[in-house]
Amino acid sequence: MRARTVSAAGLIVTRTTSAPTSVCFQCLRHDSLPSPFPVQSRKYHPTRRRDASPFGAAVSAAQTIFKGMPKAPPGISVDPLRIVGKELKFLSKNIRQLLGSGHPALDKVAKYYTHSEGKHMRPLLVLLMSQATAIDPRKLPAEQSNPSPVDNPLSQPSILDDSNPDLNPLVSRATESHQYNIAGDDNILASQRRLAEITELIHTASLLHDDVIDNAVTRRASSSANTAFGNKMAVLAGDFLLGRASVALARLRDPEVTELMATVIANLVEGEFMQLKNTAQDEAKPVYTDDTLNYYLQKTYLKTASLISKSCRSSAVLGRCAPEVVEAAYSYGRNLGLAFQLVDDMLDYTVTEAEMGKPVGADLELGLATAPLLFAWKSNPELGPLVGRKFREEGDVQKARELVYQSNGVEQTRLLAQEYADKAVAAISDFPEGEAKSGLIEMCEKTMRRRK
Ligand code: FPP
Ligand code: MG
Questions:
Q1: Ligand 1 — pocket residues by CB below 6 A?
Q2: Are the CB atoms for 182 and 150 separated by under 8 Å?
Q3: Domains plus CATH for the chain?
């Protein structure tokens, strides 16, 4: 089992004049689950020195720092949507503002998925993580407690030559409907709010591309963008979202966060490339080995958990949190991201299209061997040739589905997802009690309960 112990002191940054003492925390130990992810310890960042006080002082600092945050009564679960609901209310509108184009067709396609009701799970997590790791704004250096200039370009606008009619002050600020909206939560920095928007932009860009690759007809119970506008416009709109997300990222003026989030984009593509094959082996005659699940989990990390983990991490980096808090935020996101995708792959075998709002049973049809099938393959070697030919022959999909149901592949997937969800909860166990922490825990429980 992987376990971590982080002292309460480790969660807090105090800027004392005493000599820096490093906070005692144990690194993650090796995992009983097949894990392709080496645990990385965060290197001491010379430009972001985090001095920690001795234990007792830090605990009392913790009590002072977090005393203003709403508390959830122990044992009572909270609705994560309610905690940051006001912020989320403005998310889609603010994202559309980042996506304005003078070209009417591009403007329309780029904003298309922002009109349908998505779950907004990724930005919700960023906002909850920002709250849960908030340091009292009075303790932050002045430039950080003031709204950060997240809209300010670094280059001359004439050089950038990227007109956005929705941000042009002459056009947009004149009308209220174009104003950037915030709920004004003191525990969320402007940069963290913008990070939430960037996270959703990257996710939406990946969906625009994914629907072309998967030839999807519907998305969120409506026509997919490729169906509505064609493949070319859908791909180009996705590229445009990545462009505007990159601009917004640069304007956060944090190289570490830029590195993390730019890497997510590379990870998404690499994950999608890994998914083009079901195993690392030659596809002619694949056999189930110990590496089979590791390959799938690595693909799952790149395709899904990377965005969630690195955006949670970035939220803590922007909040100038202590290194062990940054690690805890990352570990939470990584484990929750893996649980989320495992559940997604399980639901593909268990729910109806009407419930999901998108085609189900699609993975086998697309030739994909996900966790339920892999667990079935382990005890049914005859699935090997079907995996190798991507379930292309008549009767393959049906046979594979039957073996999955017979061999408890679905239940084993759920159990593995539960292990990751539990690890996500454990990762933030030393966060101070409060509504935001309860919201993060509830997100793990919701992930396990979800039907769509
Ligand atoms: C949904 O998977 C897709 C992803 C989580 C990532 C897709 C990534 C790419 C297409 C690479 C390009 C990335 C960018 C940023 C342009 P799914 O097909 O399993 O889920 P679905 O059923 O919702 O379609
Ligand atoms: Mg898809």
A1: 202, 205-206, 209-210, 213-214, 216, 238, 242, 265, 268-269, 272, 303-304, 358
A2: no
A3: 2-449 (1.10.600.10)
